[in-house]
Write a structure and sequence with these properties.
By secondary structure, the chain is α+β, with helices and mostly antiparallel strands. The chain has 2 helices and 3 strands, in the order αβββα. It has a domain of 58 residues. InterPro entries: Kinase-like_dom_sf.
Length: 88
């Protein structure tokens, strides 16, 4: 099943290009509810939350929301971490 959405942009050209190349989706913050702190890492804070998916087949699901701290300073490290996770 292919799901198509109209999502906003991150307002960071490098991150937006990475999202496009990896075929990821930028989901605006207002599409989440019940955001609760989970843990903090080296360059991000992780929350658990409910994604208010517009797709009726998916419904509302619990997901991890990763918020980057100091995006401009830590972007390369984050993108490298994503590549490592993807290769595992």
């Amino acid at each position: 099943m292919i799901v198509s959405y109209e999502f906003g942009k991150s307002e960071n050209a490098i991150l937006d290009k990475f999202i496009e190349e990896k075929r990821l989706k930028w989901i605006p913050y207002n599409q989440f509810k019940n955001v609760e702190y989970f843990d903090k890492g080296g360059f991000s804070t992780v929350y658990k939350t409910i994604w208010l998916s517009k797709d009726k087949d998916i419904g509302n699901i619990e997901v991890a929301l990763k918020c980057l701290n100091n995006l401009n300073e830590n972007l390369d490290e984050f993108l490298n971490e994503w590549d490592c996770h993807e290769n595992v």
